[in-house]
Amino acid sequence: MDVLSGRIILRPADPDTTLEFYRDQLGLAIAREYPGGTVFFGGSTLIEVAAHMAAGAGPSTSVLWLQVRDIAATQSELEGRGVQIVREARTEPWGLVEMHIADPDGTSIILVQVPADHPLRKDVRTPNQP
Predict the structure, then answer these.
(1) pTM over 0.85
(2) How far apart are CA 59 and CA 107, in angstroms?
(3) With 60 as the cut, is the pLDDT of residue 34 above it?
């Protein structure tokens, strides 16, 4: 499996309180924001507070997010190794192609392919003007 990057995704019981903790109390820098979530720089990893995946009244849970180069090849490789695919790959409303698996303890692992036309691949810097 060709992993390009990863992050920890938090599914908080109270998204607003968790967001305030990481942003205001810990003072982590924001890597990006999107409707329903905020991604923070956490040293050599990213920490995402995903309000759209909130645990609700239950306990908070965590998810491992791994970006792969080719989701179809990764699925084929994992199936060949006997890994159960919890949810087949599909394009999400936010434009990423995601597939779900789980580790032996039940920790969710989301494998993600970022399409070439997705905003995560675009250079959003303003070009230098002469």
Answers:
(1) no
(2) 14
(3) yes
Return phi, psi of residue 82, to 5°. Answer: 85, 15
Domain assignment present for 103 = no
**pLDDT grade for 124, boundaries at 50, 70 and 90:** low
Task: Give the chain's domain count.
Answer: 1
118 located within any domain: no
Q: What is the residue type of 82?
A: G
In this model, does residue 54 exceed pLDDT 70? no
Residue 106 lies in a domain: no
**What are φ and ψ of residue 101, in 5° steps?**
-135, 180
Q: Where are the alpha helices (DSSP H) in the chain?
A: 15-20, 71-80
Max mean pLDDT among 38-42, 70-74, 78-82, 107-111 falls in 70-74
Q: Which domain holds residue 83?
A: 1-58+67-93
Structure tokens at 33: 């924001």
- Residue among 106, 92, 36 nearest 64 (CA): 106
